[in-house]
Amino acid sequence: MLDTYLPKRYQAANAFVVDSLGNFSDQIDVVVFDRQYSPFIFKFNEQIIVPAESVYAVFEAKQSASADLVAYAQRKVASVRRLHRTSLPIPHAGGTYPAKPLIPIWEGYLLLKVTGVLHWGCRLTKPSMGIYLMDDLIWAVLHRMGIFTSNNIDSKFNFEHGNKPATAFLFRLIAQLQFSGTVPMIDIDAYGKWLAN
């Protein structure tokens, strides 16, 4: 769904993420990455491999939530966050702009079906609802229920009820992508050195 509705400068796909040192992430259900300014996206044995600098967000999509599934999703997200990312100064006609700071990689958990009370098995955020959010979670979309959001700055937690949580999530994601602007300028030479070895 995401790849159909995102603006064309972005792409969403099941993919692996790689860094210029040759480290790979686990396979991620949904990687949202820059397609306009990413000079290369690998494809190997029908698997998409995205450079770490191009990644905006990673999501795990599951049928249900449990403590084990959330811990599994956390490990997969951590495999992306630990990757090395480069950012070079940006040349222009009058000289160069400083290298762009690395953008945060957002993460989330997309649930297609929910039955009963959710116990996510991580830090307690709203005990009356039985909701446990994974650390650093940005979004959780629950089919037919609503959308959970939180942030790392003040750990605020919000649940928005709604009949169209997937649509609300899509609009929220597009707004975040617009706010982030372009990804950093990738050090292509660093990838070239890795691939040459």
Can you describe what's shown?
Pfam families: DUF6602. Residues 1-83 form the DUF6602 domain. This protein is an alpha+beta fold and 197 residues long. It has helices at 2-5, 67-81, 165-180, 188-196, and strands at 10-18, 28-34, 42-44, 47-51, 55-62, 90-92, 95-97, 106-111, 123-126, 131-133, 139-142, 146-150, 157-161. Strands 3-4-1-2-5-8-11-12-13 form a nine-stranded mixed beta sheet, sandwiched between helices. A two-stranded antiparallel sheet has the order 6-7. A two-stranded antiparallel sheet has the order 9-10. The radius of gyration is 18 Å and the shape is globular. It starts with a helix and ends with a helix.
Our count of domains comes out at 1
What's the pLDDT, averaged over the residues?
Answer: 77
Rg from C-alpha positions? 18 Å
**Which range does the strand content fall in?**
25-35%
